[in-house]
Design goal:
- By secondary structure, the protein is mainly alpha-helical.
- It has one domain.
- It is 56% helix and 3% strand.
- The protein has a two-stranded antiparallel ribbon with strand order 1-2.
- Strand 1 and strand 2 form a beta hairpin.
- Helix 1 packs antiparallel against helix 2 and helix 1 runs antiparallel to helix 4.
- The chain is globular and about 50 Å long.
- The two termini are 32 Å apart.
Length: 115
């Protein structure tokens, strides 16, 4: 997803900023309304971002999946942001190493190696 630039870098950093600015502990009286606001704003951020260096919109299927994960509480916005940032770093490292980041975990390239 990152190697193909399906989600722009800016989205991850905006999501992280959103979670840091509005996130409060669960015991806080404002937790529920702020949590819902964070979720809604995160979806808005993702839907307005452009992929492939600003030339196309993020694929609808990817957006729908991310929106469902966010709104159903499957993933916290701050955690998603961190995962996207780390994924970008790994994708860049794979590119530098001449590897296909999309092929990670596909196949058993190291299964025959002696340990």
């Amino acid at each position: 997803m990152h190697k193909d630039d399906a989600i722009p870098d800016g989205a991850a950093y905006e999501l992280r900023d959103l979670a840091l600015r509005l996130g409060v502990p669960e015991r806080d009286a404002l937790y529920e309304p702020l949590h819902k606001a964070i979720q809604s704003e995160a979806v808005r951020i993702l839907r307005r971002k452009q992929s492939q260096r600003g030339t196309t919109t993020v694929a609808k299927e990817i957006l729908d999946d991310l929106e469902e994960m966010i709104m159903d509480g499957e993933v916290e916005v701050g955690d998603l942001a961190d995962e996207l940032i780390v994924a970008r770093t790994f994708a860049e490292a794979m590119t530098l190493a001449g590897q296909d980041a999309n092929a990670l975990g596909q196949g058993d390239d190291h299964a025959d190696m002696d340990h």
